[in-house]
Here is the input.
Amino acid sequence: MTATMTDTPPPAAPKADSAGTRSGRPLGQILMIVAGALLLVAAVRTITGANQLTSDGQVSAALSLAVPIGLAGLAGLWSERSGVVNIGLEGMMILGTFGAGWIGWQSNPWLGLLCGIGFGVLGGLLHAVATVTFGVDHIVSGVAINLLALGTTQYLAKLFFTDGKAADAGGNPKQSPPVDSLPNFDIPGLSDALSSVENHHWFLISDLAGILGGLVTNLSVITILAFVLFVASWWLLWRTPFGLRLRSCGENPIAAESLGVNVYKYKYVAVAVSGGLAGLGGAFLALVTSHIYLEGQTGGRGYIGLAAMIFGNWRPGGLAMGAGLFGYSDALQLRNGGQTVHALLLLLVVLLVAMAGWKMYKKAHWQGGISLFVGALVLLWYLVTDEVPSDFVGATPYVVTLLVLSLSAQRLRMPKADGMRYRKGQGK
Here is the structure.
C-alpha cells in the first residue's frame, strides 16, 4: 500500500510477471515450513506442559477469531489487486455488523447475512466513486468511510433500537435485539475420535489430533463459506481471463487500457466485491460471535485484516496463514492466556536463535548479534517467571502483528500501480 497519491506512470516494457502472475514460495517449501512449525510447537507443548497450545478448543477459538480477519484481508486483496487501496475496510465491516443485526432480528439471520453483505457493498461502491471516478486520494477516502460508517450506524442505532418492539426485545442505543443463530456443523464421529487421541497427549500425534479436531468441530456456515470464498478468489484471480485483466489494472492500468480492458469497470467490480467481503466479515461478528449488533464490535479487525493481507504478500494462501496466526494469538488471551503465552516465550527463543544463525550465515553480524541478545533476554524472562502478566497477554495480538510485518517486509511485492491515480484515456 502507499500513503501518497501519484499519477499512474507511463507503461513500461512488458515482463513475464507484469500482471503479478509469479507464484510465491513453492508448495514443497511451504509444506516443509508448516511441518517444521508444527514439530516446534509440539516440542514446546511437551516440554512446558502447556497442552492448550494445540488443544481443539484453542484451535476452534482461533478459527472463529480468524474468519472476520481473513474476510477483511480478502476484501483488501480484491481491492488492491485492482490498484485501489482500501483503508475503509473497518467502516465497511461496521456497516456489515449493523445491516446483519438490524435485519436479522426483524426477520431471520439469513436475510441479516445478505443485508450485511449488501451494506458492505454500498460502502465499497462509495469508495469506488470517490477514488475511481473522482480521483480522490485513496487513504483520505478510506478514512472518511470509516468515520462516516461509525457515525451513520450510531445514528441509525439510536433511531431504530431505542423504542417500540426493538426496545421491548432488548435493543438500546448501543446494540440491537438478539438475532437467531445460524446453523453450526460437526463431522459425526470424527470430532469425538480426534478428541480422544488428543487427550492422550502424545508427542505430535495428539497435537495433530487437536488441530484437526478444532478445524472440524462446531463450524459456522459462514466459516465454511469463507473457506469457499478463499478458494474461489484464488481461482478467479489467478486462473481466469477475468482475474488476469483485473490484476493488470493494479499493475499497469495504462497498458491494460491499451489492450482494450475497461479499467474503470474492473476497479468498480473489485472494490464492490471488497466491500461485500468486508460486510460479510462484519456479519460474522454480529450473527456468529455475539448474535447482536454491538457498537464497536469490529475492534480494529479491518486494520488487522490489512496487516494479514500484507503478510500474505497480496495472495490468498499467505493471507489465510496470516489471519490464522493473528486469530491464534488473539485466542491465547481468552484461554488461560498467561500460562500459554509464557510457554510461547520458549518458542520465541528458538526462533530468535535460528534467526541469529541465519543472519550470521549471511554475514549480517550486527543483526545476528541483536537477535541473539534479544533471545537471551527472552530466555531469562522465561526462566525467572511462571506466567506472563495479563497486560502483556492482552497486547499479544498486536505484538504478533508488528513482529510478523517486520520479519516479512523484505519479501513483499505489492501491485505496482496500487494507490496511484488513473484517468480514463491515458492509454490512448
